[in-house]
Amino acid sequence: MASRSKRKASFRTVVHESCPIRNTHRRLESAHRLWHEALNNYEDPDGFRTFLNSAIQELRNVTFVLQKERFSAPGFDEWYAAWRKRLGESDAARWIVDLRNKVVKEGDLDTASLVHVRLLRGYVEAGEFVPFEGPPTASCKEIAVAIAATAPHEVREDGILVVERRWELPDLPGRELLEALASVYGLLSALVSDAHVVAGGSECGLIECDKSAGYAQEFLAGRPACMSASQEARTSVVDLKRGRFYVPRTRTIKKGTKKDLERLRAKYESKSAAPPDWKRIKDLPLRDQARHLHEVGVQLLRADGYLVHTFHLLRDGKLVRFIGVPRPDEKTDLHVLMWQAIRPEVERTRADALISSNEIWLGTGKSGVRPAEDPNRREAVHTVAADKSGVRFALTTLFRREPTGIILERVSEEEQALIPFLEAVFDCWRTFR
To answer: Which top-rank group of organisms is this from (predicted)?
Structure first.
């Protein structure tokens, strides 16, 4: 198995010397660090419990210490009473308070923890495969190996197994523990931020974590971006045919210098290609934005001879994230996993729409034959646009390769298109409020 990245999050404290609630602020920072330590130890039950209990204690201490520090601003009692009511409306926050001096024990985790096993085949998720009958403390790798060993031949020849562990507790049913703590942290962060404003200590900021780097907002969906997709760190993936384990990774590429951009612009302008013009299309309807990006994709294909799969994530019509998905070196279904990895980015950014462009094979529809294996397949540039409200729009430009270059053929548009490779994103949007 590819070793899971253990690079720890690095932090920069932003507690100002004149902070009016210095100790409260420090407790919140400590809880942030401990949450990441618990995530780093997710596959070690003892280590996980140790940091989980410490994080819970620090989260509880935030409100206790705040009441002790009681800054001198008038109306503290009324202000804090409103916040107590808001915290009381969170089941996870109530659970943390109700724990009091109790600790989470190993037996507690064994009772309610789950192992979710999914089989990915082709473009879509085939659903839960087979239940794992073994200790929930087994590592994801052990679970995947055990299931793969008993899988039917046709599954071993054609499938990606995704194993996700979820530590849960009987008294917080249906809530993964770190996700529950992240939601409480988000509430307490809002409380501490508000306290700074009321107390006149606005020079302070919340802890800065490099795991949130590259996102437009630190807090998304009530939690820091660095806490919004812990699912990635508690998931293992195995290519059943090759018996190989993989860990999905994302890499942030820094924006090029002005000189780099000028060089690229000159390269593509000489080939009659141009980059997307977001200033021009930012206020256009989603379908028109997709048409523009589709044309850009066609130009890049003609200039380079290939097209990288790209995703433009949008929120309220504005671009919030650009993602390029490289093709796997081997002929596997790992591209399916890469598409699944788009969902955490949608969660982090709260994107409510996306546009994806890619170079694809189109088969003849022969039963049981994949397009890539169909001898009569065609090539096309395929762009899809979808949003939370249900828009499913697709553009397709057929092309063929000749010695003289790329020859473009028929262009088609389709409303309410089937877009199976985005099912994970559609499922995510159903959870948005």
So the answer is: Bacteria
**Residue ranges, the chain, pLDDT below 50:** 1-7, 210-221, 330-331
Residue extents of the structural domains in the chain: 11-107+173-228, 253-429
**pTM of the full structure:** 0.66
**What secondary structure, in 3-state letters, does 156-202 show?**
HCCCEEEEEEECCCCCCCCCCHHHHHHHHHHHHHHHHHHHHHHHCCC
Task: Tell me the C-alpha distance between 89 and 160, whole Å.
Answer: 40
User: What residues contact 388, with CB distance under 8 A and at least 6 apart?
Assistant: 352, 353, 429, 432
* Structure confidence at residue 298 (pLDDT): 93
Q: Residue 120 contacts by C-beta under 8 Å, 6 or more apart in sequence?
A: 126, 159, 160, 161, 162, 333, 336, 337, 340
Distance CA 395, CA 384 (A): 6
How far apart CA 304 and CA 44 sit, in angstroms, is 47
What DSSP string runs through 374-412?
Answer: -TT-EEEEEEEEEETT--EEEEEEEEEEETTEEEEEEEE
CB neighbours of residue 2 within 10 Å: 12
In angstroms, rounded to a whole number, what is the distance separating the alpha carbons of residues 176 and 193?
26
- How many residues would you count in the chain? 433
With vertex at residue 30, the alpha carbon angle to CA 25 and CA 31, rounded to the nearest 5 degrees, is 100
Number of Cα atoms under 13 Å in the Cβ half of residue 101: 0
